[in-house]
Amino acid sequence: MKSLSNLFNTLNLPLSHPPILRVMQFSLPSRHAALLTLILSLTLSSPTLAESTFNGYLKTYTYADLNTHNYTDIGTRTQTLYQAWPNSRTHIFAALNYDLHQPDSLSTRLDIYPVEFYANLTWDNADLKIGRQFIFWGKAAWVNPTDVLNPWDYSRLSGEVEDYRTPVLALNGQVYWSQLTLQALLLPVFDPVTQPMPGVTHENPVSTPDHSQFGLRLLSYFGQTDLSLSLYHGFEQQASVIFKGMNMDLLIPQPLLIARHQRMTMIGADLARTFGPNALKMEAAYFLTEDRNGDNIYLQNPHFDWVIGLDRSFSDKFSTTLQFSQVLNFKYDRDSDAAALNAAGMSSFVQAAPTSASSLSAVLKAEPLPFTTAQLVHVYNLADGDHFSLAFLSYELMDAVRLTLGSILFNGPPLSPFGRSRDADKLFAELKVNF
Amino acid sequence: MKKLIKHCLNTLSRFHSPNLSPSALCTSTTLPVTPFSSASASASALSSASTSTSALSLALAFALTFSSPLLADEKADPIMDRVLGKGSWTSMIADVQLTLTNSRDEQRVRQIAFFSKDDDQGQNRLLMRFQAPADVRGTAFLTLERSSGSDERYLYLPAMRRVSRIASSGGGGNFMSSDFSYYDIGEPAREDWSYTYLRLDNVDGQDVHVIRAQPANNSVFEDTGYSSVIYYIDTTAFRTLRSEYFDKHKQKFKELSVLAYYEKDGHEFASDMLMTDTRIGHSSRMTFSSISLNNPVDDNIFTPRFLQRAR
């Protein structure tokens, strides 16, 4: 069932982004150390001095809470991007973020963490990318059933995907054959973005080979049509919340809740086809979850997610995307779930999910003035009437210098997915200098 | 869009035809070469006819009026055949500097690595990868010409980490936010346009043929957004020195000036062009440098997968 798992779809909570180094502290998890060692080995194995580049950006940002009128985060991010080509077949890519920021009025933090950090080995008809990387699946916009690899960090929504998606550690092999590409993935660890909640204990899968994840994807580029088939065996990015009874030790008894990421297998497909200024995009995925028979009210039922959308380019200065998406829960009896929730005393926290949930989404992109871009993303859930908007305007002050102003807004009933985040409305401003 | 960037170059190129000399062009019609276009001459003659009592003038005007379209085509087509004749190059590597200037004279400069190559069927493939400024470095755009249906277009945005198939922008959508449309930088199919010889004129001291191109059908108009284009073509070298572009309301809205030509080893094309949007005062200058023609270019780079692989 989906209702309890949706409890975690709250966007107004501070997230535990995985900092590697904080002020006066230094730590480097073993998997990053191993990766660094591998990359250095590849670099040093080159018979000649590696060709390399050093770039990056400096970004000053301010996030303000629209409801409290307080700054929620002020800081400066420096990203250093080092690339090297030790030989014609090897590419080293290392992007590190240095965040000096004030997440609240009492503290200043320096977080240093890798964004992407990988070695890419290339042959004529194959690639092997090893390391921490982004792997995006799917062709629709924002609502992607097959995009199950990189976790979302909803508290960091902005105009840049790097801010709100987190890379995964993976072995990513691709083999090319004519118009076909076969991609095979091995993710040795599962590292979700978790959202701490009072009274809820997280149980993340431990990083052992037993918890590895696997993926396969076959892509084709034929004429005006792109098509891909995907298979993934891993974990749900969204944890299921399991009710373990009431904690009677407190003055006011509270439910004992455990958040756990369930195993799932996803079988999906996506398609993009262009017709002149229009592009049809479709994406669908069936998720076989641990609750195969639908008899565990705390786990996600097997479900089928699909989306269909149309992109239209009116000009290079204005384009739109309109999409309809739906989630269909299988082996699900809403009445019995509602009764079970009521019996567990949970009905005041969550409501039973509908058997099917539909939503509409739109993306508008425009260049209203020279050197200026604007974008609006809007998602509206039909069942609950809740919605989310991300809008931003970006102006290129000079070459490689950009000012961005934006807003993130949520609205809807209190228990709805976006309604829960009504207090997380934000305005943001960013000044970014690339070098 | 046909032939991609080659149009921008070849429209303005010289095609050395042994059978047709400039003087032959000027004498190949039954009309005398005058500083006026045949259409203008016709209009002038008609105007004269309405006020003149001369039967001869009236007869001449009548004859000119009804014979001028055919005569104009006969004169315009050979010129455009020379102008549009394909160059001999099948592949090209170059650096392109694209300078965008707004109405307040603020400039933004993009540096682009440019790769173009015809495939075995003669269809053009074009890859452009931004080198600067730093915030767009790595952005790549791939266009694969298709003889039937729309061309294939792919965009790779490093920030998004994925290659996206993109729909073409109707109405001659702009190329990389510049004032050049994708159609401007493509070679038009000869049959997509009908050409009318307008007049002889002078541009910066240079005698030019003035030729109007009009879409041969509505789909060409919808694809380009141009109701007509007027070319000013050097009478001796058959280079287009200037072009004017008219919208659906038949209002001029863009103007192209060619600032320099590349000429080497028998190859010749416009290598420095300035396109100005006359309505908003925005302009774009496209300058080619480090040009390499007909040297080997790996076919694999013109594939979607290569977009995110290359440095």
Question: Can you describe what's shown?
Answer:
The complex is a heterodimer of chains A (435) and B (311). Chain A is mainly β. Chain A has a domain at 16-124. Chain A contains 4 helices and 21 strands. Chain A has an 18-stranded antiparallel beta barrel. In chain A, strands 8-12-11 form a 3-stranded mixed β-sheet. In chain A, a hairpin with a 2-residue loop joins strand 15 and strand 16 (318-329). Chain A is globular and about 65 Å long. Chain B has helices at 5-10, 22-27, 38-51, 55-84, 218-224, 304-307; strands at residues 91-101, 107-118, 124-132, 140-144, 152-157, 162-165, 193-203, 206-215, 228-234, 240-246, 252-264, 267-277, 282-293. In chain B, helix 3 runs antiparallel to helix 4. Chain B is 22% helix and 38% strand. Chain B has a 13-stranded antiparallel β-sheet with strand order 6-5-4-3-2-1-13-12-11-10-9-8-7. By secondary structure, chain B is of the alpha+beta class. Chain B folds into 2 domains: 2-29 and 74-309, Lipoprotein localisation LolA/LolB/LppX (outer membrane lipoprotein receptor (LolB), chain A, Clam), CATH 2.50.20.10; 39-70. Chains A and B meet through strand 13 and strand 15 of A and strand 6 of B.
Describe the structure using short key phrases.
heterodimer; A: mainly beta; 18-stranded antiparallel β-barrel; 4 helices; globular; B: alpha+beta; outer membrane lipoprotein receptor (LolB), chain A; 2 domains; 13-stranded antiparallel β-sheet; 6 helices
CATH class of the largest domain in chain B: Mainly Beta
Biggest sheet details of chain A: 18 strands, antiparallel, barrel
Number of helices of chain B: 6
Helix share of residues of chain A? under 10%
CATH topology of the largest domain in chain B: outer membrane lipoprotein receptor (LolB), chain A
